[in-house]
Amino acid sequence: MKKLFMGVRLKRLRDERRLTQQALADAIGLSLSYLNQIENNQRPLTVPVLLKLNAAFGVDVQLFSDEDEARLVAELREGLSLPHVGEEISGAEIKELATNMPAVGKAIVALHKKLARALDETAALAARLGDDRRPDTRTASAPFEEVRDFFYARHNYIDSLDRAAEAVSAAMGRATPGAIEDRLRERHGVRVVRDEGETGYLLRRSYDAATRVLRLPASLGAGRQSFQLATQLAFLEFGEMIDEQISGTPFTNGEARSLARIGLANYFAGALVLPYGAFLKAAEDMRYDIDLLGQKFGVGFETVCHRLSTLQRPGARGVPFFFIRVDRAGNISKRQSATDFHFSRAGGTCPLWNVYEAFVRPGRILTQLAEMPDARTYLWIARTVSHATGGYGAPEKTFAIGLGCDLRHAGRLVYSNGLRLDDAAARTPIGAGCKICGRPRCPQRAFPSVAEPALVDEATSTFAPYSSS
What we know:
Blueprint: H1 7-16, H2 21-28, H3 32-39, H4 47-57, H5 66-80, H6 91-100, H7 102-128, H8 141-153, H9 159-172, H10 177-188, E1 191-195, E2 206-208, E3 213-217, H11 222-237, H12 239-247, H13 254-273, H14 276-285, H15 290-297, H16 301-308, E4 312-313, E5 316-317, E6 321-326, E7 332-337, H17 354-357, E8 366-371, E9 377-388, E10 396-406, E11 428-429
Parallel strand pairs: 1-3, 8-11
Antiparallel strand pairs: 2-3, 4-5, 6-7, 6-10, 8-9, 9-10
Family: Belongs to the short-chain fatty acyl-CoA assimilation regulator (ScfR) family.
GO molecular function: DNA binding; DNA-binding transcription factor activity
Protein name: Transcriptional regulator, XRE family
């Protein structure tokens, strides 16, 4: 474990508990001078001290995690590198802010997000000026971004729902479609109807509250049936718990709150079909082999990847993953993170990232060691998945799924076999998005970096576009 100097966070904890230095020192069995040195970053915060804080005050050691610091650094780097900031802020200054004043850093990130939203709405208003047919100037993506931020802030883990789902799964023995359907019928009077013979676009789930009839397409496989049945069970049986999760969150409108409720119900469904303890044990035993996990639990590749990105229960954490789903045009339809990996909201993602190569090799699992501009390196797994609604000629959708983790966890994954983890030359340099990526000689650059002025020279033509100083 690297040395953690987090004196400001410790001071903040003491202030929140209204304790003097002497009272805190006595509570955790340290001398006053030793505690004073920790608070002034003259000594690191050690594991034994963290354990004493946990025992004395029930403090989650994640509060002092460098993973949280790295997440905040990534968000600050994006927000503070844009042109409207007007100041050039070094990486060292950003790290200092994230380490010593995380609350201030989070406030800056929140202000940046509000500004970005306001700029989007201003652009939408300008585009619609004079058109009275569309009075709503909110951008369609804003509610979805709010919900993504909601899960990101919680490391993509919702403890109360996860434990509730695990308890229900244990009571069932296994969350098969029949078992979940029986619970819906016996506890909630719900009748499940499977529609046969429909073609074209099919709803995965349609519930009529008046008649208590839940309709599912007969074409759904067992795993997807279980997920849809479990989602409905979450709304009916754990609706209050879902509402408690979002009650203190300042969503800007009802649409965002409804999306958050759906996201939490889907979270419960995944946790019911893939109960935490059993799934984590299987993942560790199988070295996170996605195909083997899918076979064991009867679910698809995407479902396994999504669940792997949620294994962050205190005291029983799995590998912290970043999960993403993109289409051929680079549109991100799902993005969940239990780690510090962060892609820009502006300027797209990086074309050198292997999630895009997956479309060229459909159905194959691709691996990549990718290094970010700040030298953090990740192991990425990517593969395409396709879903169809019926037979020949029916609509189909294809996505690439990306699952990534920090290099230090890579050895726990079967996908690291044969990779040169310690060889810097084996790593692909990627960025968080062209507009904020400072790599000076990237041949795939689509936009000039806002962090560096572009060099425009009529007498010179370079291989890499948008050269900078």
